[in-house]
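Quick start: what a row looks like.
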Amino acid sequence: MQYYAGLDIHKKTCQAIICTEKGNIVKKGRIPTDSEKIQEFFQEFKELTIAIEACNTWEHIFETLESQGHQVALAHPMKTRFIAESRVKTDKVDAEILMHLLRTGFLPTSYIPKKEIRDLRNLVRQRIFLGRYTTRIKNKIYAELLRQGIKYKKGPTLFKGIGIKWLHNLKIPSVKTYLNLYESAKKEIKKLEKEFKKQGKQYKETQLLTTIPGIGTYSALIILSEIGDINRFSNEEKLFSYAGVTPSVHQTGQNTYHGHITKQGSKHLRWILTETVRIHLIWTARHMVETKISQFYQRLCKKKPRNVAATAAARKLLQIIYHMLKNKNEFRG
């Protein structure tokens, strides 16, 4: 007999419920969010399909259940409208809704990458965090220098060699604290960059992506980790939607209006595409060459603001990446 389960996950506890193919409930209960306790609850069932909702703690629970031989479906939190819009919203109700949506085949699911891609995704997101963290620290130091009326030459040299020594020699306690944090974060970034060099050699996809001017190993790994298996997208429009670079549409009567991009999807993929486009445009201008991306950008700039053109060029870049990964071709300009 086939059994179905719903698991509503929280930090400390989970609400679990199991039913038969016909929807008859055979077991339910609240269990600690602990691998051993979860395994104990489900161990008497062999043919079990379980629905869990995407949250901060889903990954280790997914691995726990998968190790028991269960099939696990990850519910898409934004598309599981029955839970979001329930009038009576409790953990028991949420778990039961997940279970019945799974049983009836109406559960909207999220893509679960392979473990190696999940680990890579966590690694590059750690690097993204550290990059933004060091930028915040720099801004704090700039603000402190301005507050004390100290003149400085703003630029990348301030946080390199001589610039760092100059900041230390100021002997300002707050600046000293920020510098310690900054230098500690930079050390961690260097460790990650060494790891990225190793990771970059393992994937053919990164070697293809780095043929695009403006995309280095780090950028390529972000793109790869966010996209995962390119074959899960049957066409480029679905990839655009996943990245949140599809224009919003409002239709009333016979009139259709296109607005800003939806920004619903992978924010990290959308961010790196925009950053890569800017670097790509600088590269083409410096080397006085034209590519499909730069030509597209220049055409749009004649009738659209530069930031709008850059966003559209990011979508164009994603289109090129889609076909490169699908056909395993290098960038041809």
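That is the whole record. The mean pLDDT is 90. The longest strand covers residues 13-20.
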